[in-house]
Write a structure and sequence with these properties.
Chain lengths: 297, 359
């Protein structure tokens, strides 16, 4: 039997021209196209919409946005909501995750129930809470049954109770997201660290402060970025509960776009949200920079 | 420093049917080094974790230095521990890790610095004090774990297979170092391992565990030399003890198959019994020529080990491992003669596997 030389590889036969497109381009090409079409183009379009009219570049829409009587209250409300909600939310989520880690009976059921709000649309959640907080809602009915006169929780002149109602509804709706992230993060921390800390005399709070929270930092970072950005976008719950009475930035965007039929000012508002979201992410990434090299182990 | 008293400790894990520790009682003297040895699943780690307070027993009690600690949380027991996985905190420097226990106890800063420096010197960690654990090798991380455990002034030092994640050479070196450190420290130490050579080399006292019970407790050499049952003899020693089915004739002679052996006087009272003869490989003498009291064996495998030659031989259909001097020349299928000295032979009951005692 004779051994024949293998035929020359087909590659060599292809013209040099073809090879000039590197494989990498083919690999990232489709995603670049998609990103450009679905992300880049709308972003550029949005920026143009905010800064251009028929005559060209203009600050007209930005000025209108800032001068609108609802703008600064909306910014203030949004920031206040974030400042109050995020710490409470994280305290709740971490507390709940630690309770789950203690492995109580039926802990899978608890986790499931605590995660239910995650599956609920925010508008539906807002309507549920509306049925609780409105003048003839469940809360006032319960108070009446106890012989206490009800309060108009969502009255337009009662900013404080409106804020608290939105806060509670948002806490209920969005804490489960933080919980899920924190639970996943806790499960990734070997039990040995906590046990070692216990053996070396650390109390519960010492362990939380010196061992659990630092090891949980990567998860907390993710949760913080997600939750803060999402909190800037709080909309449907507040809309359902308070309508225009408790303005938030995204609610304003919606009002300018649908109510006032002015997409340009709406685009300017959207850009404000984009800028603030990016700044917060950068802040969190820098503030919580990971010190350990090579992961947590 | 303190002694440890464990009495009637029973623990069943939730969902488990077998007892992880089954009525274990054990006294550990002040300042002694006790090794809990056994195969995986024998309950040794569970026992250690109950000493640490990381698991709670179903019943029974543990006291350290006369103080009942059975249901105390770990941080109230004044213990320290070296974990199998090291459990060195990855987000903090070596210095912080070593001083962790002292810091939790709110010891003054200068005092912490002094002790950390002392432990780092002892374990050759001084150049690495400001590094993060991820920048250390496995052996160095284990040293950090040991340093962290010895700086605190604990009543009891617990070690859970501290050497099992190290490579063979490192393990051998660190073993003797560890022994010296613990000896100088003088702290009551409980050490868990599945490695019988570690147990023999480190312990003042070895507790061999099996299925949640202590099969034998004693001085390492006693445990090696006179296993209380077949399990212990088979678990300790490399190669493990040989067990040969034998019989005692009515007139007190020992018979293996058709061959007769010199029987020690112990067997006089077991006339007409079927027994098991246990003998260590190094206690069997080999010869090429027949001698009185020797029995014939056929060589199956010859394994030169350097300092000795390990022979696998067949005696009347039963396989034995015996050690021959390096000068002994033989080959498979040859017949050699084995000699047993009466004081190194151990005898076991065939049904219960327990050692036979003269009565």
């Amino acid at each position: 039997m004779t051994v024949q030389a293998p035929p020359a590889p087909a590659k060599a036969a292809t013209p040099v021209r073809r090879r000039s497109v590197p494989a990498a381009v083919w690999l990232i090409g489709p995603s670049v196209v998609f990103m450009t079409l679905l992300l880049g183009w709308p972003v550029i379009e949005g920026v143009m919409q905010a800064f251009r009219n028929e005559q060209g570049f203009t600050l007209e829409f930005v000025t209108r946005m800032v001068q609108d009587p609802y703008f600064w209250p909306a910014v203030r409300n949004t920031l206040l909501l974030i400042a109050v909600m995020i710490p409470i939310q994280f305290a709740f989520a971490i507390g709940m995750a630690l309770l789950l880690r203690a492995n109580p009976r039926l802990n899978k059921v608890h986790f499931f129930i605590w995660a239910i709000p995650l599956a609920l649309s925010d508008l539906a959640a807002g309507l549920v809470w509306l049925s609780i907080f409105n003048d003839r809602g469940y809360l006032n009915s319960a108070l009446a049954w106890l012989g206490i006169e009800g309060v108009s929780w969502l009255a337009y002149d009662n900013q404080t109770t409106m804020f608290i109602c939105v806060l509670i509804a948002e806490l209920w709706r969005a804490t489960s997201l933080v919980l899920v992230i924190v639970v996943a993060g806790l499960q990734g921390i070997p039990k040995d660290y906590d046990e070692a800390a216990q053996v070396f005399g650390a109390s519960f709070w010492q362990r939380l402060r010196h061992v659990t929270l630092p090891l949980l930092k990567p998860s907390l970072q993710v949760a913080l970025i997600l939750r803060t950005i999402l909190a800037f976008q709080t909309f449907a719950v507040a809309q359902a509960l308070t309508g225009q009475n408790f303005p938030l930035v995204v609610g304003e965007t919606y009002r300018w776009y649908t109510g006032l039929q002015n997409p340009n000012v709406a685009a300017a508002l959207a850009l404000v949200i984009l800028a603030v979201s990016m700044l917060t992410s950068i802040f969190y990434l820098r503030a919580l920079r990971e010190k350990t090299q090579g992961g947590t182990r | 420093m303190a002694d440890i008293s464990i009495s009637n400790l029973i623990k069943t894990y939730p969902g488990g049917t077998e007892r992880a520790t089954d009525d274990v009682s054990l006294h550990i003297a002040d300042g002694s080094f006790t090794v809990l040895l056994g195969p995986s699943g024998c309950g040794k780690t569970t026992l250690l974790r109950m000493l640490a307070g990381l698991e709670l027993p179903d019943s029974g009690s543990i006291s350290i230095g006369g103080r009942d600690v059975t249901y105390l949380p770990p941080n109230k027991r004044n213990i320290s521990m070296v974990f199998q996985s090291y459990a060195v905190f990855p987000h903090r420097s070596v210095r912080y890790n070593i001083g962790f226990g002292l810091q939790m106890a709110k010891v003054a800063k200068e005092q912490i610095d002094k002790k950390v420096q002392w432990a780092a010197d002892l374990l050759q960690l001084t150049p690495y004090l400001d590094r993060l654990p991820a920048q250390l090798s496995g052996g160095q991380r284990q040293r950090v774990a040991v340093a962290r455990a010895i700086v605190v002034d604990a009543d009891v030092l617990l070690m859970d297979e501290p050497l099992s994640n190290l490579d063979a050479l490192l393990r051998l070196n660190f073993r003797s170092e560890l022994k010296k450190i613990v000896q100088d420290l003088g702290t009551t130490t409980v050490y868990v391992t599945h490695d019988q050579s570690e147990a023999l080399s480190l312990g003042d006292q070895v507790a061999v565990m099996r299925k949640g019970r202590i099969a034998q407790l004693g001085d390492p050499l006693d445990v090696y030399d006179a296993p209380s049952d077949r399990f212990v003899g088979g678990f300790i020693g490399s190669p493990p003890m040989n067990f040969v089915d034998a019989a005692v004739t009515p007139d007190g002679e020992l018979v293996v198959g058709d061959q007769r052996l010199m029987a020690p006087s112990l067997l006089q009272s077991f006339g007409n019994h079927s027994i098991v003869l246990g003998v260590r490989a190094e206690n069997v003498s080999v010869a090429k020529e027949r001698a009185s009291g020797h029995i014939a064996a056929t060589v199956l495998v010859v394994e030169p080990m350097g300092s000795t030659i390990l022979l696998t031989v067949d005696v009347e259909g039963q396989t034995l491992k015996v050690q021959a001097p390096p000068s002994f020349r033989t080959a498979p299928h040859q017949t050699i003669w084995l000699g047993f000295s009466p004081n190194t032979m151990r005898f076991y009951d065939r049904e219960t596997s327990m050692a036979l005692e003269a009565n």
